[in-house]
Every structure is written in C-alpha cells, then in structure tokens.
Amino acid sequence: MSEKRLPVITINRQYAAYGRTVAALLSERLGIMYYDKDFVRKTVEESGFDFDEVVSRGEDMTSGNKFLNDFMNATVGNYPDYLRKLYVAEREVILELAKEPCIIVGRCANHVLREKNVPVFSIFLYGPADKRVGRASELAENGQEDLVKYIKKRDTMRNNFYKTFTGKEMTDCSNYNLCLDTTVIGPNECADIICGILEKM
Asked: Domains in the chain, please, with CATH?
C-alpha cells in the first residue's frame, strides 16, 4: 500500500484492549511508524517534566497522589497549569508527527488532528472489563489489586483525560471511524479489517 494514500491513523483504547499490539501490527503491514510510549517520552521531555516522575505518578493509584488527584478531579476547561502545559506539548508533537503517515496511540490524537483538519482514520478498541483480564494479567501492572477493578480504574483515568481535554467521552463511537471489540475480534483480525478498509479508501 502506498504511503501517499494513507491518512494518519489514531488508536484510542480501553486498558488491555491490545492497542499497542494492533498499532505494531499495522505499522509492520503498512510500512509506517507507530508512536506510543516513545511519543509520551518525547512530549514529557518537551514539556519540561521528568519522564520517570510522570510515569510513576500516573501509575500510582493512591488517593494521596497530587498528580493523580489533579488529573481525576479536573473538569473540562478547568485543570492545573502543569496539566495544560503537558497537553499543549503533546498536541504540538502530534501535529509534527502527522506531517507524515503514521499511527498514534492515545493522547486525544484523533481530536487534535480533526481540529486542525488533518486527514485521520480514527479507531477505538474496547471490550468488557471481565473479558480483558487475560491480557491485563500478561501486562502485569496491577500489583496486588484485583484485575477487574484495576482495568476499570485505568479505563476511568483514560476517559477522564480524554474528556478533560476534548469535552467528549472517549467511549462515544461518534468520535471514531471504526470501533472494534478486541475480546471478540483478535489483534491480527483487527489489523486485517483495518488494512482492508484503508485499501479501499
């Protein structure tokens, strides 16, 4: 498939819904780059935050964590300056990456690009929490917490981030061109479907 025919592909996903896996498969099949954790590292560095500090705070689910509290309690258009600074840095990196065909995972990329009228094919990967337990156990990020509770907590964090900066629900299908339940359709099959659609566009 010619890169010139490809829009920027964005993937939003619920936790343990194979977002990174599908992105990697698409990257290999389409011959374009995908950005996930490397993208986060770059935006954190450009915002002036320490990467390890932000990652550790983001994964620390204790109620006493200032970063988490500010993030979870933020409302649309009303959030601390340092969260605004982080989002602005991420937005600038998204727009820079979108100058070439690529795949961007998370970070409200579909919303950012549509606001700037950049051609984008947006995907949402999801599935019932109790059906994502197997994948979540492979990721082994929950510590001692019950996996279903941990999945729902991570989903809440992602949805809050999306809603805070876009004013929309991450799970609203109207935000996307394609929504796929990865607990029914496996990662390889999802990649097949997406590539088939892009081939016909």
From this structure: 3-200 (3.40.50.300)
